[in-house]
Write a structure and sequence with these properties.
Elements (H helix, E strand, L loop, with lengths): L1 H7 L6 H21 L2 H10 L7 H21 L2 H24 L9
Helix pairs in contact: 2-5, 3-5, 4-5
Length: 110
């Protein structure tokens, strides 16, 4: 791990290469972060059941991702803004599914 740190900061690498590596890490982080919500959405749409999904977890994620969007705006980083805005949208959709498919009288509140 220490070698990677020095490799990325090696002055013999061009600035373009460093920026490409940083961009690639950002894209991969975005992909894996956003992909984590998709299986739950697919399962909820297929089964029409969301009793096992915590609404407080979804709300917390929406709050945290919204703050990342705000941070990205303040910093002027379009990658942070777009990636986290997509995450907010996916989690808002999951929250909608939670509201739509939770049985009002029989579910245990979470």
């Amino acid at each position: 791990m220490l070698k990677l740190r020095y490799w990325v900061q090696d002055p013999s690498l061009s600035m373009v290469t460093n920026e490409y590596i940083i961009f690639l890490v950002g894209i991969l982080a975005t992909f894996f972060s956003l992909w984590s919500t998709v299986p739950q959405i697919r399962k909820s749409l297929k089964s029409k059941k969301t009793d096992d999904v915590s609404k407080w977890l979804i709300i917390s994620l929406i709050g945290g991702l919204s703050l990342w969007v705000f941070y990205g705006i303040l910093k002027g980083d379009i990658i942070i803004v777009v990636a986290n805005a997509i995450g907010v949208s996916l989690n808002l959709f999951l929250l909608f599914l939670k509201w739509r498919y939770t049985k009002s009288g029989t579910s245990v509140p979470n």
